[in-house]
Amino acid sequence: KNAQQGMEQLRVKQLATPTALAAALAEIKRELHLPRLPSRMEGYDISNIQGTVAVGSMVVFEEGKPKPSHYRRFRIKTVSGANDYAMLQEVVKRRFKRSLKSDASTPNTWAILPDLVLIDGGKGQLNSVLAAMREVGVGSVPTASLAKENEEIFVPQKRAPIILPRSSPGLQLLQRLRDEAHRFALGYHQKIRKRQTFASALDTIPGIGPKRKRALLKQFGSVQAIREAPIEGLATTRGMSKHLAQKVKEHL
Known about the structure:
By secondary structure, this protein is of the alpha/beta class. The protein is built from 9 helices and 7 strands; from the N terminus they run ααββββαβαββααααα. Strand 6 and strand 7 form a beta hairpin.
């Protein structure tokens, strides 16, 4: 984890100037044979544990910089079991269906089509996403995937991967985009798991039903926060009493 954080900090430093970002965008356009500069890039990733607590992420870079206000998270709804390909397909379908339903004249971030879609993965992930995008009707949006092991870039029009030098500013920017999608998906996955763990712990406490459980989750959000909260604080939560708050503290 520390090594990954170190690499991310190095990429941020190397891409810190407008000149470096411009060079990175120009290189991506050239090497991936894009029709225009990738001023808006969207990165996608999936996070799950053997198909459970499955989520997807969409992160956005504009002019080479993260645009957190345009990030989106997805709970996987239609896929059972560990099938990352199908999960990626669900996420991109939902994203681009919303785009097609949006009016481009309104300030709706869903309506903006990217200059490049980047998938975390190899040729298989890329092909599954391309099929989903064609099904939705956005097959013309430029799409690529970036595989972690050898940092290979896959594009639809080439069988062999594109290999850029590790020092390449274009590769470093694509790595940042991919890693940010991974971070955002993993963070959402972990947040849901914590809530579920907390909810399971509350299920064993007499007198704490679904309504009180939801109220506690909304009020405190994590097991650690509940453990650290005083009884008086728990008791002021909607539907709670001092007696029930005492039970919660005893069980946790």
